[in-house]
Amino acid sequence: MKKISFLLLCVLVLVMCGQAMDRIHANNADPKAVFEKITVDFKAMQEGENGMMLHLWFTVHEMKDSGSTIAVYFMHNDYHRGYLKDTNQRYYSGAGEVALYKNIKPKTSADAFEDFQIFMPYSELDLFPGDYPLTMDIKLIKLQGGVISQLTRYDFNFTKPLPNTSIIPSASVDSIVIDHNITENNKTGMRISLKKLSISASKNTENYVAIYFEKKDRTKLKSSNASYQSQSGQAAAYQALNQVYDNSEWANLVLFVPYDAFGLDKGRHELQMDIDVIYKNGGLIKHLRLQPFQAEL
Predict the structure, then answer these.
(1) What global pTM score does this model have?
(2) Which residue, 123, 209, 280, 294, shows the most beta carbons closer than 10 Å to its own?
(3) Residue pLDDT, tens place only, 144-164
(4) Do 116 and 70 form a contact (C-beta atoms < 8 A)?
(5) At 130, which CATH number?
């Protein structure tokens, strides 16, 4: 009988310890947010400014009476140019990127936010006139910095006309042909032909085709050849385009790139080129495409 009572006591102690541990775990649970959905009104206006109104549904856990911030960062969704850079320190992050913030303070341990609204003026995207595929990167962060939860990413398209016009600068290309093992100026490389390249922008301006080289996993190729590199040192090729008309077309635009500009070892490499049309000052007019290719060095 004593042995049975002792066993029952042990079971009771274990159960009580388990319940206590559960309570300790619950009290020490990490804060987090669970995202539900987003809708965007792209024709919103606030205080006389045109912009977009974000409507968010999410639930915040284990953050009762603790302040935090909904942060929205804006980025190019071709992943080459990254986050939009701020120019006027109005809507910006500490890293100098275009960003939007709005504080929250949950009242319960599981506080649901339904139709949480946050407004972004279009003028604060700080972009040159053009046609842009963009992404909003939305996070819950601590007031002093540091991510609590990634909420969602939302793709959208933004167009900005030239000043005092309805013209939206853009560009397109019908096809791209790559010829390998071509020799020019005693260098072996590849010839890139852009067929029927069209650009709509203001006439008498100088724009560029910019081709950036990278691996299939988006790792940028680094070049030591100053004639074939971007300002960041990425392997790149540029071709100036003197635009005489508002709408211009090049039937066959050809660029040559030597293989040694890629900074790669001998062998076969699976690569891709990121092709853009840009302003002379570097601002993006239009991302054309990612073009995969093989290089045998």
Answers:
(1) 0.77
(2) 209
(3) 889 999 999 999 999 999 888
(4) yes
(5) 2.60.40
